[in-house]
Write a structure and sequence with these properties.
1330 residues; alpha/beta; globular; EGF; Exostosin; disulfide bond
């Protein structure tokens, strides 16, 4: 039979140069390759040092060199750690933790996992106690590492108690690690789980622990020990062997004085360079070349010094010296090569530590490598935040490994600037486990992922046959995984070929001993095809996608070996050395296993043509090299034709790679179950936006927000309403009637009560409303007494007035009327139904449901602005509801003006859900529908939040195509969340990841608001490409709360922040007098905030004038009714200066920085009103209309409050000269307009001189500033919305009927308003971005 005689495959040689080149950065590995080549009869391939695996990354430009680091650490790390001179924190060896490594960190031997809490379970007092873990110890346990040693003559002898921390034991002792060292019986003779050795053979006079030459020998598997009796001490394994500048302690480098880093590569400035340990230990010479202080080659790669728990601690904790490494020291310290399948994890790390591409200066790095050792099976228990302090046992091991990666990412983001500046896009992670890329946490997904598993399908489930690695399997635990864990990883493919790279498995020189590619004699390739491995006969069906099982069955039933010389079988079915058989085959099969397998590297490194049988999976370097030139691909459906296909292939033939991914330009994705009738399908992403009360895929799960009298103490389920109204405890949502558990709103339960929809109703069917029973502020309408006449906390209405025959819930004309505050209700008895408030009123193409737009068929988006392709455009609803004509313009198909702004459709929890949850229609909005659907103007302080969102939705600058956008607006309603949503009921809360499913109550509301913003950012980076391509630098956020910019999470800080608070000092603390808003206060909770929260926000100023903008507050036309700027008759400005507001008499001393308090005291003590006509006082101290007084003053003070206040807008919009008294704080648009032309600034230190300073301003200068105000005032009002224009016109028309001897200013165009000013500023920022 004519088979190919192959002496060498040129294309495979190219790939060999890459795959085998794992060792080119590694002198000892290269030396072994050359030894094999020189000892063989073939031709040696050329050295491929610069063509290998590490050198295939791109090249970037130069960066500056950072100054030397020389930070010190507490107590010199207690002698058991190494001080990181960059961060000033200790890296502690196993057994120690905390600042200065002062706390013990026990890992006890044990027979079980703990049931709850943070402390690990300990060793039982009796060996015969039930239960088993591999660390269970019949001798002396090293509680630093959970390793077991003898306790007899040859047992462990601990260092004296007076020894310094970390002192080595006086005698190491013989280890008792594996099952051949576990006694089979307990103290009283009963059998013991997993024990297999008679106790006499361990503890008797001739036993392992007692005699020099024992009758039974336990395995000597611990790193650093060798010989049949563990009598030989060998070198232990550490990364790069500490570069010769430290002592290796089973994975942890205890660096010599002056040196630091996880491989002791860094040298403190001024410290002399010491000789390497290789002078005394020659076996270290290949590992202790030292580190080049300047890298030779590009790209320059910085290798992070992570906390030990992410890498070196894994080596300290390992029980077998042949795992977690690709090399080990045997007797006489010569090198052995373990065959651990995930060896690339430590190998690539070590190669980069030795590489000529490595830089010790992160400022000059092109890329950043993050060495996390996830592939060790016994991963410590990582919690939801990626910390070991908030996790516990249980769940699949991939859950803990994913959390481990997330924890490393969080640490990077919090301790170094490099992650945040690019959102990790210049970072590199190696995920070497079976399906590791599939369960990578979303937080690291923007990075470059090096993987062995190039699975391409986006909708993927786990194929492993090992349950502990099944990433599709959810796991919930009330304490350690209260919301499950899979949300941490969902939403990305296993591998993205546009940014990731599939790399080959590591193969040691002995594994290639018969390869002609390394110079071994060429063999006749008598096998047509070859595969040896686990054939899955005893594995689950999904193992290897069933491929190995099917091939094995076919090979046996059709006698492929006898008929075709195709050898396919298990480890005990094919005889002969593996390397020899690979070198004897023409084709070698590349098949999946539990995920990836190493057969591609095996084939190529032996000159065997790879035959890839795994659909939609990239092989190593498939995006770098043209695999069609040296491999064959066979679809899984064609497995039965394998012999015929291989026999028909010619030597030069290659198989064309299959389909490439493409993106559909039109969005028309469908959603599960049509969103259950209670949601809107996002046709771009194929996910549902669910209205309140529903969640999950397809909006199929109930999402309850019960009324309650308390917050929960633990867990994820919100607290519910007590059965008795008189039960102690109070929250504003507490309900004496019928609770709407979708929104935590309370309704009557009598004649005029809520009527629930029938049980047979569809999910979207609503009940009849009933009368509302709750007011959003202090509960002045709550029941005063309980069922038995006892008084009720916060109650003040007699039950008879609510439930009696003349009560609110029973009578048509009740004797007592509750406030009708709920959106959509009006009238004295809530008898009128009005339009409800939604963003842009759903553009006239949807029904507004108290904030949520339920779009009409074909329309989608949070304002129903998007139309499915080929769907007819429907008329808006204004024909039948004319009050909506201002809102039903529907976003036109025009080419948007520049700058083009794309407004994100965020999940409802970030905006519309806040409107659904609000208890009063007077908050979270700048407008309302009243009786007859007329517009009213609430005075909620933070109205810019919904206003700017709505203005952009209706702006001619809005684009519905994100690919043409210049900027991206992220509409998150944090101010609405903070009041009135926060604390009304026991939901929602926002966790460390920004999600609401893994957290509970407690902590300041600014913590939850900051997490809310972080969650929105995380969602953007995981679901859209636009954030990641610029790290959010072309994104715009409005933070409207008092000091919101100060507590913005670091994750959004690269964006443009629109704010009202222009505080510029870099080192800042909160000035609020409201404790719930104090962002300086730390909050720690063992379950919901185990590591605190302030690290989320630390490290940036409140406002950066180079990228952010201070914008004015919104003022409605009604609030300007006496303003001459809007047509009201000009008044005599008889007041020299004016300010009305909270003067801080009953507030904390730091409120308003003490400015209001000092001014108030001075005004009273020195009679400023009577002497100077300076009116400064509280709301109850000046009784004239506010707008009238503003229009009657020459100067109006602009003072801080809990943060910003709206006084600048008040002044300017009334033609009153602003007097700014707040040091180092920018006022609105101060980076756009020259405020010195129309305002004054007075230093806080000069407050007492206020009358003198103001009185000294010449009248001509006053007139000049007033004239300048007339030129700019319109930039400080928001007017470019039909409803605002209409109200303003009515106001000016009414003003024109009043006699006036003074000329009114010409009304400038409505378009030249605050929004247009913001957009023009963004237009200028476009040049910066370009």
């Amino acid at each position: 039979m004519p088979y190919f005689k192959i002496s060498a495959l040129a294309t495979a040689s190219v790939l060999l140069g890459v795959a085998a080149g794992f060792g080119a950065f590694f002198p000892l590995f290269t030396q072994h390759i050359r030894q094999i080549s020189e000892g063989s009869s073939g031709v040696r391939p050329e050295d491929a040092r610069r063509s290998d695996a590490v050198s295939t990354v791109g090249v970037m430009g130069d960066k500056s060199i950072q100054e030397a680091w020389n930070a010190s650490c507490l107590l010199n790390c207690n002698g058991v750690g190494v001080c990181n001179a960059q961060l000033g924190v200790c890296a502690c060896q196993a057994g120690w933790k905390g600042a200065g490594c002062m706390e013990k960190d026990k890992r006890p031997c044990s027979n079980r996992w703990r049931d709850a809490g943070a402390e690990p379970a300990v060793q039982p007092s009796s060996w015969s106690a039930p239960g088993w873990l591999a660390s269970r110890c019949p001798g002396i346990c090293d509680e630093d590492t959970a390793m077991c040693f003898c306790n007899g003559t040859y047992g462990r002898r601990l260092a004296p108690s007076s020894s310094p921390p970390g002192a080595e034991p006086l005698q190491e002792g013989r280890p008792m690690i594996l099952d051949n060292c576990w006694p089979s019986k307990g103290e009283d003779g009963e059998s013991v789980d997993h024990g297999m050795i008679e106790p006499e053979l361990l503890f008797g006079s001739q036993g392992w622990c007692e005699t020099e030459q024992p009758a039974h020998k336990c395995a000597c598997v611990l790193d650093g020990l060798a010989g049949t009796l563990c009598e030989v001490r060998t070198e232990q394994i550490c990364p790069a062997q500490c570069q010769g500048y430290g002592e290796c302690r089973r994975g942890f480098c205890k660096c010599h004085p002056g040196y630091w880093g996880h491989d002791c590569a860094n040298l403190r400035p001024g410290c002399p360079e010491l000789p390497s340990a290789a002078a005394e230990k020659p076996w270290l010479a290949p590992w202790s070349q030292g580190v080049m202080r300047q890298p030779e080659l590009r790209p320059r790669i910085y290798v992070y010094d992570l906390p030990p728990i992410f890498n070196s601690r894994m080596l300290e904790y390992r029980s077998l010296k042949t795992v977690c490494t690709y090399r080990t020291f045997a007797e006489d310290n010569y090198t052995q090569w373990p065959d651990w399948v995930y060896r690339s994890e430590p190998a690539l790390h070590e190669m980069l530590l030795h590489s000529a591409h490595r830089t010790l200066d992160p400022e000059q790095a092109d890329f950043f490598y993050v060495p996390v050792y996830t592939s060790w099976a016994d991963t410590p228990w990582f919690g939801p935040a990626g910390q070991t302090s908030d996790g516990g046992p249980g769940g699949p091991r991939v859950m803990h490994a994913a959390r481990m990666l997330h924890g490393a990412q969080q640490w990077l983001a919090q301790t170094h600037p490099y992650w945040n500046r690019s959102e990790g896009r210049d970072h590199i992670w190696l995920l070497s486990h079976d399906e590791a890329g599939c369960w990578a946490p979303n937080s690291i997904w923007p990075s470059h992922i090096l993987t062995h598993w190039g699975r391409l399908d986006k909708d993927h489930t786990s194929n492993t046959a090992y349950d502990a690695d099944n990433y599709s399997m959810e796991f919930e635990d009330w304490e350690w995984a209260p919301g499950g864990w899979t949300s941490l990883i969902q939403g990305h493919p296993c591998y993205d070929p546009s940014k990731d790279l599939v790399i080959p498995a590591f193969k040691s020189p002995p594994e290639m001993e018969n390869s002609p590619m390394l110079g071994a004699a060429e063999r006749e390739r008598w096998l047509l095809a070859f595969f040896r491995g686990d054939m899955g006969q005893h594995r689950a069906q999904q193992y290897s996608r069933g491929i190995r099982q099917q091939l094995h069955a076919l090979a046996i039933s059709h006698d492929w070996f006898g008929n075709y010389n195709i050898s396919v079988g298990g480890y005990n079915e094919t005889t002969g050395p593996y390397s020899e058989l690979l070198a004897s085959a023409v084709f070698c099969l590349v098949l999946p296993g539990d995920g990836w397998s190493s057969q591609a590297a095996d084939a190529i490194l032996h000159g065997c043509i790879p035959v890839v049988i795994m659909d939609n999976v990239h092989t190593p370097f498939e995006t770098v090299l043209d695999w069609t030139r040296f491999s064959v691909r066979i679809p899984e459906a064609n497995i039965t034709q394998l012999p015929e296909m291989l026999r028909g292939i010619q030597e030069e033939h290659g198989h064309v790679l299959q389909q490439q991914l493409h993106k559909s330009p039109a969005w028309n994705r469908s959603c599960s179950h049509n969103c259950n009738g209670v949601g809107v399908c996002n046709a771009q992403l194929g996910i549902c936006a669910c209205q309140a009360g529903w969640k999950g895929v397809g909006c199929l799960e109930k999402d309850k927000r019960p009324c309650s009298n308390r917050w929960r103490d633990a867990g994820t389920e919100p607290a519910v309403q007590p059965s008795s109204w008189s039960a102690p405890g109070w929250l504003a949502s507490r309900c004496p009637g019928i609770c709407d558990e979708d929104t935590a709103m309370c309704f009557c339960n009598g004649t005029y009560g809520r009527k629930r929809a029938p049980l047979t109703s569809t999910p979207e069917m609503k009940p009849s409303s009933g009368r509302h029973k709750r007011k959003p502020r202090p509960p002045s309408f709550d029941i005063a007494t309980g069922e038995h006449g006892e008084s009720v906390q916060h109650g003040n209405v007699e039950p008879e007035l609510l439930f009696g025959h003349r009560g609110w819930c029973e009578a048509k004309r009740p004797a007592h009327k509750c406030a009708c505050t709920l959106d959509g209700l009006a009238g004295d008895t809530c008898e009128e139904r009005t339009e409800q408030t939604c963003a842009a009123q759903c553009q006239g193409h949807g029904e507004c449901r108290r904030g949520f737009c339920k779009c009409h068929p074909g329309y989608w988006g949070h304002d129903c602005a998007n139309l499915l392709p080929d769907h007819p455009q429907l008329p808006g609803v204004s024909a039948t509801r004319p009050w909506l004509s201002a809102w039903s313009q529907a976003t036109s198909q025009h080419t948007p003006l520049r700058p083009r702004v794309y407004v994100y459709d965020l999940p409802p929890i970030y905006n519309s859900r806040m409107l659904e949850y609000r208890s009063s229609k007077g908050v979270c909005t700048y407008r309302n529908f009243e009786q007859d659907n007329s517009t009213s103007w609430p005075t909620w302080q933070y109205r810019a939040e919904p206003l700017l969102h709505e203005m952009l939705l209706q702006s001619q600058h809005r684009t519905l195509d994100p690919d043409e956008a210049d900027f991206f607006y992220v509409p998150v309603y944090t101010s609405c969340f903070m009041w009135p949503i926060y604390g009304w009921a026991d939901a929602p809360w926002f966790g460390p990841s920004g999600h609401t499913d893994d957290v509970g109550p407690g902590g300041p509301r600014v913590m939850h608001a900051a997490r809310m913003l972080h969650g929105a950012q995380q969602w953007l980076s995981q679901s859209h490409p636009y954030w990641n391509r610029s790290n959010g630098r072309d994104h715009v956020w409005l933070l409207s709360h008092d000091e919101a910019g100060c507590w913005a999470p670091n994750s959004i800080w690269h964006s443009h922040i629109l704010t009202h608070w222009g505080r510029m000092d870099a080192s800042h603390k909160s000035n609020t007098a409201y404790a719930a808003d104090n962002y300086t206060e730390e909050f720690v909770h063992p379950e919901w905030a185990p590591g605190g929260w302030t690290s989320l926000i630390h490290g940036h100023p409140c406002y950066d004038p180079t990228k952010d903008l201070v914008i004015p507050a919104f003022k409605s036309p009604e609030e300007m009714k006496n303003s001459p700027m809007l047509g009201s008759p000009e008044r005599e400005r008889w007041l020299l200066a004016f300010f009305r507001g909270d003067m801080g008499q009953h507030r904390e001393a730091w409120y308003s920085r003490g400015i209001r308090q000092e001014l108030h005291a001075l005004a009273l003590e020195r009679f400023w009103f009577s002497r100077y006509n300076i009116s400064l006082g509280g709301y109850d101290e000046t009784d004239a209309p506010y707008s009238e007084l503003l229009a009657s003053a020459v100067f109006c003070l602009v003072l801080p409050g809990d943060g910003w206040s709206s006084r600048a807008a008040d002044a300017i919009l009334h033609g009153c000269i602003p007097v700014v008294i707040m040091d180092d704080v920018h006022a609105s648009f101060e980076t756009i307009f020259d405020w010195s032309q129309f305002s004054l600034r007075i230093a806080e230190a000069d407050i007492a001189r206020l009358p003198e300073i103001l009185g000294g301003i010449r009248p001509t200068r006053r007139r000049e500033m007033q004239q300048q105000l007339r030129k700019v005032w319109h930039h400080f009002r928001y007017s470019n919305l039909p409803v605002i224009r209409s109200a303003s016109n009515k106001l000016m028309e009414s003003s024109s009927l009043q006699p006036s001897s003074l000329k009114r200013p010409d009304a400038p165009p409505f378009e030249q308003d605050a929004l247009q000013t913001i957009l023009q500023w963004l237009q200028g920022r476009m040049r910066v971005h370009k």
